[in-house]
Design brief:
The protein is an all-alpha fold. It has helices spanning about 10-20, 25-50, 55-65, 65-80, 80-110, 120-145, 155-175, 190-195, 200-235, 235-260, 265-295, 305-320, 330-350, and strands at about 115, 325-330. The chain has a single domain (about 5-350), classed as A middle domain of Talin 1 (Up-down Bundle).
Length: about 350
């Protein structure tokens, strides 16, 4: 799906910010501007991966796929919006696992009796996410059960980051065959046409740099407007982070998941939804914690509020339950969307 028409919101955002327009308009405009930039970032990464090989291409895709939400969170971190940063992490997890996957399953199976996927590779990815999520919930559980204020988030971040590097070696190198999907060989000339759609190497690098700069500018504007926007609309910063920041940073991944599901390529759709959430936990979160020692007013911790912990656990467990039989249908997608809406309602009334 092409979102390039939304690029018009880049000059609109700059103009609104220059004339000190309503923070709500600035916030929504900058968020919409990030959507096509994230799509261009993905296309540039895909094109560049063709030239640098499967292993390094996979690493680049895994890293740049989270660039929008990472940059957004870094600016929120710099502004001292720690609750917003943690809310964005929570929102990315439940957004991909419930909203993104729910839409993919529901829309993808509307004209099909069921959708099937490789339950072995998908189950392994989901299991990795479950293990990684322990790193997010253990500090909160420790605090709530013992009442102690011991800070060990940095140690957990190191463990998560090492586990992330190990998972890349596992999926891209030593056991890559477990994650390969069986595809139909394209007709003569089709593969050539697909390659022609990719950008040249130097054009990909240039677009990658320009788009990253654009995302950086829009993210700075977005985070500076989030608190006044939340206040004017009657939202809490946590709700804004869980719903809006996570949506702006992940909508490109969600759209791709839906696109692959429509093509009956559920392995790819599941891989996007589960993989994006796993990378948020194991890559984005540790990077944010490391960065907070240099750019934030104080180090970032992993003490999520109880409702965030419950939301993460529910999303991971529900996602895990779908991987058991290797098939799904539109009703399961609708149930995932229902759970997401229920949690969104809960976050709306949280601390109000």
């Amino acid at each position: 799906m092409n979102y390039n028409f939304l690029l018009i919101f880049i000059p609109i955002t700059l103009g609104l910010d220059w004339f000190e327009a309503s923070p709500t308009l600035v916030f929504m405009s900058s968020g919409l501007a990030i959507v096509p930039l994230a799509g261009l970032l993905g296309k540039a990464t895909e094109s560049l991966s063709f030239f640098i090989g499967e292993t390094f291409g996979g690493l680049l895709a895994a890293t740049m796929g989270n660039a929008p939400e990472l940059i957004i969170s870094l600016f929120a971190l710099k502004a001292g919006l720690y609750d917003v940063v943690k809310a964005a992490i929570t929102g990315s997890i439940i957004g991909n696992l419930l909203l993104g996957m729910g839409l993919a399953i529901f829309i993808g199976s509307l004209d099909k009796e069921k959708l099937t996927f490789n339950r072995i590779s998908t189950g392994m990815s989901s299991g990795l996410l479950m293990l990684a999520s322990v790193g997010l919930i253990v500090p909160a559980i420790f605090h709530f059960t013992t009442g102690q204020e011991k800070e060990f988030s940095i140690q957990i971040a190191v463990v998560l980051f090492i586990a992330y590097i190990s998972s890349l070696i596992f999926t891209l190198k030593t056991h890559h065959y477990l994650f390969q999907t069986e595809v139909v060989k394209p007709a003569d000339g089709h593969e050539t046409r697909e390659k022609e759609k990719l950008w040249p190497k130097y054009q990909s690098i240039m677009i990658l740099v320009v788009v990253t700069i654009g995302i950086t500018l829009m993210s700075e504007t977005l985070t500076s407007a989030i608190e006044p926007t939340a206040e004017s609309l009657g939202f809490t910063p946590i709700f804004a982070g869980v719903i809006f920041l996570a949506l702006f940073g992940n909508i490109a991944d969600m759209a791709n998941a839906v696109r692959f599901a429509r093509k009956d390529q559920m392995d790819l759709a599941m891989g996007i939804s589960v993989g994006a959430s796993t990378q948020v936990v194991m890559f984005v979160t540790p990077i944010l914690i490391f960065a907070s020692y240099f750019i934030g007013p104080k180090p970032l911790d992993l003490y999520f509020v109880p409702f965030e912990v419950v939301a993460i656990v529910m999303a991971v467990l529900i996602n895990r339950s779908l991987m058991i039989d290797g098939e799904t249908h539109w009703m399961e997608g609708l149930m995932l969307l229902g759970v997401y809406l229920i949690l969104a309602i809960g976050f709306f009334f949280l601390a109000m």
